[in-house]
Amino acid sequence: MFIVTLAGSPSTRSRSGVVLERARRELHAHGHEVVSYGIYDFDAQDLLHARFDSPQVKGLAAHVEQADGIIVATPVYKASFSGALKVLLDLLPERALQHKVVLPLATGGSIAHMLAVDYALKPVLGALKAQDLLQGVFADDSQVSYDNGGTVSAVLEQRLLESLEQFEAALARRPRPVEPHLLNERLVTARWSI
């Protein structure tokens, strides 16, 4: 399966990035092809001025179109997800997440920020027509460390692995389009009865 990860923190060093990297490594170990993007990969002027024709934005849109699944990670600021992530999501085509499995990940200062995923991020992902929008994972700052290149607590690790299992199961049951030449062949050779 082809998966795109999107880090919504404007910083290259972030707790949400640590959680996303742990998810990426797990999916890669299971044989999935994973392409990673971060807000910091995009020119700020392109985001600020909504340049849909930016090469980086077009590259992301092309990978999202090809993807079977998307994982979006964000820090929670002032009871909402990253504003820079919102700007980038606004640059994607209207139905960019149609026929995709989407897993949101978020980190925040305390458990009080947990609802930001349900009330801020998920409606935006739903507006992009996510086919299968999973529950997601929220981690408070005490569960993520920058030590040793980034680590997560055992409790968070367990929840993340369970969510990734659900993500992979949703990917596996996702309907696959039939190639036009195969569809034609199947119709020609099918036995019809009434």
Automatic annotation (TrEMBL):
Residue span(s) of domain NADPH-dependent FMN reductase-like: 1-142
Domain of life: Bacteria
InterPro entries: Flavoprotein-like_sf, FMN_Rdtase-like_dom, NAD(P)H-dep_FMN_reductase, NADPH-dep_FMN_reduc_SsuE
Biological process according to GO: alkanesulfonate catabolic process
Xref: Pfam families: FMN_red
GO molecular function, one term: FMN reductase [NAD(P)H] activity
Keyword vocabulary terms for this entry: Flavoprotein, FMN, Oxidoreductase
PANTHER family: FMN REDUCTASE (NADPH)
Entry's family note: Belongs to the SsuE family.
Protein name (record): NAD(P)H-dependent FMN reductase
